[in-house]
């Protein structure tokens, strides 16, 4: 496995434009570090992070400055991810059924009145297909952020506000429990209400509204349809690649839904996004080294303010401060799995997916 050592000095690379901080912003960041006793130069994350014992000692820190520092932590995390993934074997997964589906889906999309794009609420940007806009053109679209129960209220609010500013119709849903499904059904019908008005004007009989449900593998497309229909019409399981062909299903008398297999780019050029897909189980396991991915997850969690080193220590009784993600996996393997690093890595990934570190998104909206 490639080493996940501390990265070299970084060029401008962040979620937003890389600009020199203003004197006020620079003062805030410097003052914040001084008041906290300094942000630890933490080898776990290959950069600056706040260790859990430092957080406790400085719990009275001003809330506005906390927000400022948190935004900088997310910018640092994006930059660090680039360096952590650069030396690793690229994550690529493009099974044969996806190539076939993509060709058929592009033809079916021409018949759609509305397209429902489903993304993983934990990684809304990483589960956005780079060609989706080109495929849909001016077609009406609804964006569904599924698994909203797996992120915090702060994450939900941040993403809802972000997409609202873009005038994107967005619904937060939980496909397993059905939250958001009825709202989705009503919105789909209302967006396509003019379809039958135009048909009647041409002397044609009304027809059901046609809606296609598209998105990456394992983001919950089939579960969402099953909840809408209130019965199991589409095979669904918590792993990528279960749905392997297009399938039309009828929702009442006035709505038809097209369930589709998950679609991915033939080549994932953004490897930071690919690692997030692996962490969230939105890409096939054969495409990545589980120990690499778990090590990066450890390093991400130590950086995310709402999780931090304490959550990892409470879970495994291993202090991640001052060590890399790979070292924590190795220590955990010796502690619980007779030195099997893969089993230890699977445990860490499984714990994250089950919310053992708290429900948290791995992305925040770009500034």
Automatic annotation (TrEMBL):
GO terms for biological process: mitochondrial translation. One of its GO terms (cellular component) is mitochondrion. It holds the Pfam family MMR_HSR1. InterPro entries: GTP-bd, GTP-bd_ortho_bundle_sf, GTP-bd_ribosome_bgen, P-loop_NTPase. Keywords: GTP-binding, Nucleotide-binding. Residues 211-265 form the G domain. Residues 1-22 are annotated as: Disordered. The keyword Lipoprotein does not apply. It comes from the Eukaryota. The keyword Nucleotide-binding applies. Residues 1-20 have a biased composition (Pro residues). One of its GO terms (molecular function) is GTPase activity. NCBIfam families: GTPase_YlqF. PANTHER family: DAR GTPASE 3, CHLOROPLASTIC, MITOCHONDRIAL RIBOSOME-ASSOCIATED GTPASE 1. This is G domain-containing protein. The lineage of its organism: Eukaryota, Viridiplantae, Streptophyta, Embryophyta, Tracheophyta.
